[in-house]
Design brief:
The mean pLDDT is 86. Strands 1-2-3 form a 3-stranded antiparallel sheet. The chain has 3 helices and 3 strands. Strand 2 and strand 3 form a beta hairpin. The chain has one domain. The chain starts with 5 loop residues before the first strand and ends with a strand. The chain is α+β, with helices and mostly antiparallel strands. The longest helix has 23 residues.
Amino acid sequence: MSNPFTPDIRLQQLALTQSEVCVRQIASKFGGQADYSDAAVVAREAALNMLRLHIPIGKPSQQQIAGFASIFGSYLGETYCRNHGGIWGTQDGGVALRTGS
């Protein structure tokens, strides 16, 4: 039995904070801009692919990988929310993003 979606303002604030960390990381590490546009998401795919290719070389810890996943996931979710509508919350014991109206 699925638990219903529950909006969570704390998750919204955390996602916003994490997405801003991502914006700063993109600027400092990749020299790019992340402006929450759909076009910027396409550019972020290249950065994520580069990170994926360097995992065997850099040997990041699971904690570092989880950190990147959190900030990039927050950025992608925030971009979607801003451009297409959505709200952060919880469902089935995990973080969820409800889209649409």
